[in-house]
Amino acid sequence: MSQPLIKFEKVWKTYGEGEARVNALAGVSFSIPRGEFVAIMGPSGSGKSTAMNIIGCLDTPTRGRYDFLGIDAGDLDRGRRAILRNRHIGFIFQGYNLLPRTTAAENVELPLVYRGIGAADRRRLALEALDQVGLANRADHTPAELSGGQQQRVAIARAIVTNPTLLVADEPTGNLDTQRSHEVMELLTSFNHERGLTIAMVTHEADIAEYADRTIRFLDGHIVSDGISAEAA
């Protein structure tokens, strides 16, 4: 069996000291193989966001081990984790996080700037990514000139423009109406099915989680269920 892309081994994440001590994660273990689409669910304070921050190399365990690509990512310093993120992870957020005074294409180019890619190649790759999300004709529009669904598709283009190993999606439909939500999820599903892109997605919406192959549910820092999603069954 091939090595999983993501592996948690008895991961704890603790905040505070003494009576204020809180275990956001309490000895959590799970793995995600390459090519899987996983939804992570749970109420506020359940540990799901903490787990996603560790998956995305934005945070590290207090105890236990987090392996990404076979590397003990929790043991890396901040700079090396930033390199790992830049090379291998794309991010999508609920609030889009687009720069307001730059065009769609310029927003998509940003991860390529951090990689030191030249202007002509950045523009070409950004236009290709926008075409893949159905926004080739909106490349020179600013976020204010785009609908919420279009802004999220620009954010998806920005996340995939570097051809990442992992896509981390934090409530990607949280600001969208039902129709736009399902359009975004169809797009993510197509990248998972057609490219084999691994996706880890936090959501509180059961119908959105059904797009995933598998759903992991957190409660009070523990995993309370981990199984195949209804649509994947």
Automatic annotation (TrEMBL):
InterPro entries on file: AAA+_ATPase, ABC_transporter-like_ATP-bd, ABC_transporter-like_CS, ABC_transpr_LolD-like, MacB-like_ATP-bd, P-loop_NTPase
Presence of keyword Transcription: no
GO CC, alphabetical: membrane protein complex; plasma membrane
GO molecular function list: ATP binding; ATP hydrolysis activity; transmembrane transporter activity
Superkingdom, taxonomy of origin: Bacteria
Pfam families in the record: ABC_tran
Key words of the record: ATP-binding, Cell inner membrane, Cell membrane, Membrane, Nucleotide-binding, Translocase, Transport
SUPFAM superfamilies associated with the record: P-loop containing nucleoside triphosphate hydrolases
Domain ABC transporter: 6-233
Family in the record: Belongs to the ABC transporter superfamily. Macrolide exporter (TC 3.A.1.122) family.
Name the UniProt record assigns to this protein: ABC transporter ATP-binding protein
